Model the fold of this input.
Amino acid sequence: MYTPAITGTGVFTPSEVITNAELVEAFNAYADLTNARNADAIAAGDMAPLEHSSEEFIVKASGIEQRFVMDKSGVLDPEVMHPLLRQRSDDEPSIMTEMAVDAARKALAQAGKTADDVDAVICAASNMERAYPAVAIEIQNALGIKGFAFDMNVACSSATFGIQAAADMVRSGSIRSALVVNPEICSGHLEWRDRDCHFIFGDVATATLVERAENATGPWFEILSTRCATEFSNNIRNNNGYLRRSRPDGVADRRDMQFMQNGRKVFKEVLPMVSAHILGHMADESVPQDSLKRIWLHQANKTMNDFIGKKVLGRTPEADEQPNILQNYANTSSAGSIIAFSQNSEDFAEGEIGLICSFGAGYSVGSVIVKRHA
Done:
């Protein structure tokens, strides 16, 4: 049996940014156009007019102030309202591969390792660019890694589930190390025309190198324990899968083909589930609340994170005990907790303990308890 460790992380951040002000301007222009085009139906009471969005509404609902995206031109065009991502030929790298390779190389550099030191690649993400061949195998090929690769999707919990899979393989001795990559093109599955959710997501990619602790060449985080759980729910759903169908009139514009969420039910059901999961995990591993230096939570909503942080620590967390990055990145699905970890972990001293947790559609929740070694 070997001790699994996180020895490197990396984050790819797109160059394009959409501020709340830009997003609101575009959405409100779209709403005005739609209302004008449907003026007769609205006057007859057959259709409700679209309401305007506002910066105040977005910040209050989520804590988000901006988001990074792969393309902003289409999102901000009231006649388009989705990213304009060029269809690539089969002999070109996929978008997800380009994003993941950048993050993976940063993780390898931080760990002081090369592709020759990696035995597996897990592409764990909510939004796969295609069904097959596995995006992970393309990433593996682009990095020049031998061994094997596979995709996995547990929605926003994909990163922690991927880390558990990697840690288990390292612990058993079947591999020396694995790269868990989380390239998320969330802008492609978001319904930018829906006021209730048009502000939620952004694009990003993260990577985490999990390897045998004995092979670490610098500071590392021992993976003390991992735990995952799922419970079926339709309250967060996206039907744009293998069996996509058009409307009866042949127009492929079904609302359920994009991100859909019953926000109130999600709050009511997910918060106690996640809090109980984390506290149960800590109790089983004899990790008291006051021993945690930091918790790196899934970055979906500030109110949710504040609630969970207070339950986990038994008090209101200090800002550095529960870092939030969603004000800058928005919700980046599986990548959010890894961004928070990557950007807020270098100050850990020998023996200090932290916890990574992600949660989302499924419902799903995954937690990873880590200890720093200098």
Summary: The longest strand covers residues 220-230. Residues 243-249 have pLDDT under 50 and may be disordered. The domain at 222-373 is CATH 3.40.47.10 (Peroxisomal Thiolase; Chain A, domain 1).
